[in-house]
Amino acid sequence: YLQAKAATATSNTHAARLTPTHNKVKMNAHEFADLEPDDIPDPICAGSPGLTDLERNIVIVAHYLVFPVTSYALYAVYKKLDIIEQRIYSPFTLMMAILWVQLGTAFEIGSHNYTSDWGLDIRKTDLIHGSFSFFNYGTQFIMAIALKKKGVPLFRCPDFSSGIINGVVDTIAVIGDLFMLVMTIIQPILYAMIGRASSSVLIPLTAAAGVFTLIRLWQNLGPNKYTFWGGTLYLAFALLGVFFNVLYEMICVAFIHVAIAGSFACSMIPFVVAVFNAELPGPDVPSDEVIKGAIRYVISLLLGRMSSAGASGLDENTPLV
């Protein structure tokens, strides 16, 4: 009976792909029909070649690179803590965001290992992936909040006392901070309701949070060329990971997984550079002057005259709300 059962189980290709390699069991038609859509092999890439052993090992290493890079990021915050405490809203939340990157990666590794053997052709909705989703997207929201300028309350009314432009910028900051706080709390509920489809909602929202992080990393720890490029490349590498994910769905080459993982790991390297170059605060400058300075900097950079614009394109003591 056991031999017959084993023979039947190994003949079921779909069941073999939908279960971990060490625990393959037969799944009858009724059970297969009851699966959530996210548990069924991707209809676009289901027939694509999987990873070779060498490619799989490289993908695994790429995921584990997150841990030393984020550990160094924690060290950077520790070394510059005396300055960071004078510059941003919550150094503790910043460190917690870095830890969330590690936790999200740990759950991601577990999900990849027990689903499709590090491939991307099976998109399973479960607690392991749900935990990855919470920490992966949540870290973007809380990092942006943590990098707010020191002394600016989270719950407040926009300030129009310095002009309309400053008031509009402040309004965006107030609404954005509250929205990111709410999304951090409700995203597990969203995942429970619609599963992995929640990514289609969360990816653009975390990209917007990344813009907040870019500006605040640049201005609230600088401004200088290191905080500018640190924030810019942090966001650029994260968006590059999203691009490679979309590219995989277009061409179905499994080894693109290493580029996806590597992009997110590399995003923390410029972040570390920015933190190590944090500076003491200077006098406040209105937001409209910051915007004008940023525009001048970008134009000078595009025209190849970065040296004439100064190290940051702004006054060295220009913070942003």
Structural overview:
The model is unreliable at 1-35 and 306-321 (pLDDT under 50). Helix 4 packs parallel to helix 12, helix 5 (66-79) runs antiparallel to helix 7 (91-114) and helix 7 (91-114) packs antiparallel against helix 8. The termini are far apart. The radius of gyration is 23 Å and the shape is globular. With 321 residues, it is mostly helical. The chain contains 15 helices and no strands. The longest helix has 31 residues, at 164-194.
The SSE string, one letter per element, is HHHHHHHHHHHHHHH
Q: Structural class of the secondary elements?
A: mainly alpha
Overall strand count: 0
- Largest sheet properties: none
| Coarse morphology | globular
- Low-pLDDT regions: 1-35, 306-321
